[in-house]
Amino acid sequence: MSVAIIGGGLSGAAVAWHLARGTGAEDLRIIVIEPREELGRGLAYSTPDPDHRLNVPERKMTLDTSDPLHFQRWLLSPEGPGLPPGSQIANGDAFVPRAVFGQYVADHLQPWLASGRVEHLRAAAIGVRREGLGYAVSLDNGEEVAADRVVLAVAHPAPAVPGALAGLQGDSRLVVDAYGPDALSGIAATDRVLIVGSGLTGADVVATLHRRGHAGAVHMLSRHGRRSKPHGPEQAATSADFTRPLEERALGLLRRVRRDLAQDSQAGLTWHALFDRLRSQGPWVWAALPWAERRRVVRHLRGLWDIHRFRIAPQTHDVVHAEIAAGRLEPLSGRLVGARPQAGTIAVEVKLRGGALRRLEVERIVVATGPAHGSVIAANPVLADLARQGLLQADPLGLGIWTSPHGLVLDRYGVEQPHLLVAGPLARGAVGELMGVPEVTAWAEAVARHLAAETAVARASRTV
User: Fold this and answer.
1) Strands of the 2-6 sheet, one edge to the other
2) 302-309 and 271-280 are packed helices; what angle lies between their axes, rounded to 10 degrees?
3) In Å, how far are 169, 251, 259, 438 from 241, measured between CA atoms?
4) What is the pLDDT of residues 413-455, one digit of tens each?
5) How far apart are CA 43 and CA 61, in angstroms?
6) Would residue 174 be called left, alpha or beta, if left means φ above 0 and alpha means ψ between -120 and 50 degrees?
7) CB within 8 Å of 322: residues ≥ 6 apart
8) Which stretch of DSSP H or E encloses residue 432?
């Protein structure tokens, strides 16, 4: 049996790694289709900027959920790079540059690539069609790959340009992808900058500008002015249990969170303990919510969840607050109303929360709103091709691809496609939280187990 994995970032690489370890060479051909030179880096871990850090300490990062210290041991081993300067904080935790984690994943795939157990096709997939009981994957080099199973581990879509900035499309003064190659290199030290988005991406932009000695005014705009929260202290676990009973309404879940936060506060715990518990029980909590209630969570509570769930690296947090204290960074709460290019500058209008209108003159605008998951099907040729054939559709929440709870793609009629699976964050509408490395790794293991089980069935049928 052959498996084609489309996408060789963390999700695709993790599926390939677990498949190679869990199946015999004679049972399964594993093909990863990825145009980049190395597997495992993808968009997230290709950035060379040392200030783009993991927002989780090294002791909680791993390719193997059964071995939580897998990354840490590699990092400090003769094969690893050791702790880069400035990574370790006072309590001993290390928040290393994201490129280091990318190197870790690539290094662990290398033996399987060298042995031929995993094949890396350096090309981009542009289409997938049904062929017999399997699929044919079309590549941008004109070739096709036949596969019995296909795993969609495609990249995050690019950020969406806010409507108010549509008139600046193609203008070099508008940076649409903050993580693109040399995306911020054109910003002069004295340029006034508007960052649209105040989450982790916006904070990374601030950290990069700070390291480069940027001295111009920086404005950071978001609808509610929320910024990612810092990590908390070592403390006891919460007694909260969101699985007994499971809530079936978003409002009931919110009330439980508020009640348990109050109880934890009386016990001397910070909010971190409860959100860690909610994260660990997330798959059961999410599965219990009907789609209408999931939609309410996404619409009303996602912003609050994101800033508490996706915590900022301490080094980056310190830079952001130092820039605010120095008066070089101004957080703004509101929405963009318009932007007009002028000679040498861009005139921006912002409607602040409360109704006041604020006018800014800036030289550069950086979009830091995160991936536009709602447009991923239209933006990706493989997904668009499958959607045209009726083999795939967007999930009802606009978070990615509609799948079964087990990651099998649902076609236009809601019917499972048993040989077409989704690895990575695009399955989160059905699966739940899938943006962090622990969840991505656990989901990759689940996908690999599913494929390994099918391989075992195929082996048994051949034996019979």
Assistant:
1) 118-121, 29-33, 2-6, 149-152, 416-422, 408-410
2) 110
3) 48, 17, 12, 20
4) 999 998 999 999 999 999 998 888 989 999 999 999 999 998 8
5) 18
6) beta
7) 210
8) none
